User: What shape does this take?
Amino acid sequence: GGAEAASDMMRLLKTHVDPSSQRILLLASGLHPDAFLNFLREFPRLKLSFSGAITYQKAKDLRDLAFDCPLERLVLGSEAPAHIPAVLGGDRKHPYSHPGHLMFVARQLVDIKMARVTLDEIVEASSRNFCETFGLNQ
Assistant: This one.
């Protein structure tokens, strides 16, 4: 199950990765909610990528995870070709997810965080975190 997979991943990362220096990007949709705080605590350079999956009505655990995720750990992602934002519904015009859909994800994050952050703050944080994770200059 999800908790067992998260436990296995934690064990492997702790065995093979220097938590203080290794940059890690995890797909939030693949992270068991109960493991979230443990991963943040153990890996200070870990970031979570949120995709269109947070727009799905049944994704309550994922939205809870997004609510709790600090801006300095958040990255917008498309998880292409899966996780088309719900507002697009996977119709013929939008048969797959792509980076052009990131604004739908960012707007959903503003809603999830109950407007405690702005759209610009989400986008800026994601860009900064992405660049830090991949060693790019801003």
